[in-house]
Design goal:
Largest sheet: 6 strands, antiparallel
Helix content: 25-40%
Number of helices: 4
Distance between the termini: 81 Å
Shape: globular
Structural class: alpha+beta
Strand content: 25-35%
Length: about 180
């Protein structure tokens, strides 16, 4: 009896290759430059939130707030003009890396998606969606369904990025109010 043609292929050829969805859109340095194009200097600083501040933020946000944060402080002419935090959230299964830029007024300047590793939901990278964060502060809800619109098919990505931005804005606001970002 003749064998089917597919049986003559090497075993490895019968396994469909997995789709690669991870995309690095920019580096952290490129993100900080995009968020503060007028800056002539960035200084990377590490901060540890006091436990009381961390607990207060976790309670207020209903999100996990880690104790250690790396902040890229943007300066122009020796004067601080804002700060950038590059952070990760989990989409559905994998990490989404984003950068939030906050001005000295406590408002979000912009959000950039640095890397996206999910198979669906990359629409969060669309400028029209990311622009919703601009001008918002720690007083804004920064929640999908409240002041941030959802994208059909990208609900988890939208929700988790919004949560991540809400967390970084709250942390940066706390650091700013403590005088740490001067």
């Amino acid at each position: 009896m003749p064998r089917p043609a597919w049986s003559l292929l090497p075993a490895g050829a019968l396994i469909a290759p997995g789709a690669a969805f991870a995309v690095d859109y920019m580096t952290a340095d490129q993100a900080q430059a995009a968020l503060f194009p007028e800056a002539d200097h960035f200084e990377t600083r590490s901060f540890t939130l006091p436990e009381a501040d961390r607990a207060r933020l976790q309670s207020k946000l209903a999100l996990t707030v880690r104790p250690k944060w790396v902040v890229r402080v943007a300066s122009k002419g020796g004067k601080v003009i804002g700060a950038v935090v590059v952070d990760d959230v989990i989409g559905k299964f994998d990490r989404i890396t984003f950068a939030s830029g906050l001005g000295l007024d406590g408002q979000v300047r912009e959000v950039e998606i640095v890397a996206y590793r999910e198979s669906h939901g990359a629409e969060v990278r669309q400028e029209s969606w990311r622009k919703q964060f601009a001008g918002k502060s720690a007083d804004a809800p920064l929640r999908v369904g409240d002041d941030i619109a959802n994208i059909s098919g990208a609900t988890l990505s939208c929700t988790h990025v919004a949560d991540g931005v809400r967390r970084t804005v709250a942390v940066l606001s706390a650091l700013q109010h403590s005088g740490a970002l001067r």
